[in-house]
Amino acid sequence: MIHNEIFYLFAIISVGYILGNIKIRGFSLDVTAMLIVALIAGHYGMVISDAFQYFGLAIFIYAVGLQSGPGFFDTIKNEGLKLNLIAVVLLLLIFGIIFTCGYIFEMPRTITDGIFAGALTSVPALAAALEIKHTATTSVMFGLVYPFGIVVTVLLMRLLPVLFRVDLQKEVEAYEAAQKTRFPDIYTRNFRITNENFKTSEIKKSKIESMTATVIERMSLDGKVEHDDEDVILRFGDVIRVAGTEEQLANLSIVLGQEIGEEHVFKDDMSVLRLLTTNKEIVGKKIGMIKELKSLRTVITKVRRAGIDIPSYPNLTLRLGDKLYVVAPEIYVEKVTKFIGNDLLKYPAADFLPISLGVVLGILLGSIPFYIPGVGAIKLSFVGGILITALVLGRLGRVGPIVWNLSPHSTTLLKTLGQLIFIATLGTNAGKYLLESLHNNGFLPIAIALGALIISLGLVAFTCKVVLKMNFIDILGVLSGAMTSTPSLTMANNMTKTDYPSIAYAAVYPLGLVLVIVLAQLGMKIM
């Protein structure tokens, strides 16, 4: 059993983990150590079959896509154009440098295209090039450059923060602060209605909420409490408790009048709860569609997701693990708690239908050809199809009875397991051809590829940081996504100890993947 792929796989992961966690003056190789161990193992015959690589890549990309789905579409709406333009510039730079060197050194296009695909460690780009002209030369160049491309891109992700003297912890804090600017904290305040207009006009609770985008959670009306009427009329002298942002509450004070302190006691039977969304029946549903909350006279005042406060708008879709701030009658507390869930451990973590079905749909999408004028038919490929499918499903949350969201534990397990299997398999398969390719072709193809990567990544990183003043979290994500480099994303996430780089990665990955495929096919035609 020692000469077995399973043994090789876990032996490489174990040794790589040990070496990767060794720190010298605060610097560690991290995931690069596992790749180096895998390359050495591959050279000495410990090869793991490609099926493991595709399995690991499938579950890793699917988990990243599901987790990044909501954030991906938000990024596209807010700053996606800028991120994708940066990705296009980076890929065109790499392409231009490599093919200019190929022209200067009079290399055949089959060799140059292999260098390009290998530098980006892109199997879809290699496949696209071979569809134009199937030759062993391109594959050999790809195999020669590929391991060096992986190691250098991953190491650059590790070294760029050092070269730019960036404190990643401060960048994470700045990133989170920027997120809070887009999604301000939500507070609760008490107001006594002193606006004279309320004496002569019938103004309903729903109208105030609509005008000010706030949520009225508790009320003392005319000295008594009323909850039976879903949309009560507010009158002069009533006291209400309202949830909203600082700006919304400031606007509300203009409408209502006097803000009073926390000392006011609401003589009602209402309880304030903080509950985790874990019930499969409400995950993926919009708040306004959950009729059971109305029958239980329950109000969601705000939703906290990934450290961000989100107003409880009726069209807000609930995600697994959302923390809900809820006001409910005391007699319904047990029912409301059970209805929302409030226990991640009871969520069906082993529900494999969303995982298997999502991967199948992704592979089918990736196999569909579409046509680009002047280039011909191209496909999104295995990885592109799975990622785009996962992004869409992660955004939807659920389709009918199928809930696509996974528990945080399941997502973490899938990502970690997938990336470890992928890197170990990748390294062993590249390592077996390393010395042979070096002997036959020398170091010139490697020098061209690495020069193109270092110059392009350095220039783009400098422009993003110094000129565009971007957060380094986004820079790491966009560089990894543009090159469609899963190991680079892994390094970025590990360095920041967050999944924040995955947002920018997912925002540019689809365009990066398509552009790499198109450029690889163009490379076979332009020289």
From TrEMBL:
Location (main, coarse): membrane
MF terms from GO for this chain are:
monoatomic cation transmembrane transporter activity
Which GO cellular component terms, listed alphabetically, does the Swiss-Prot or TrEMBL entry include? plasma membrane
Q: Family assignment?
A: Belongs to the AAE transporter (TC 2.A.81) family.
Output the NCBIfam families linked to this UniProt entry.
Answer: YidE_YbjL_dupl (TIGR01625)
- PANTHER family in UniProt: K(+)_H(+) ANTIPORTER SUBUNIT KHTT, TRANSPORT PROTEIN YIDE-RELATED
From the Swiss-Prot or TrEMBL record, give the protein name.
Putative permease
The root-end lineage is: Bacteria, Pseudomonadati, Campylobacterota, Epsilonproteobacteria, Campylobacterales
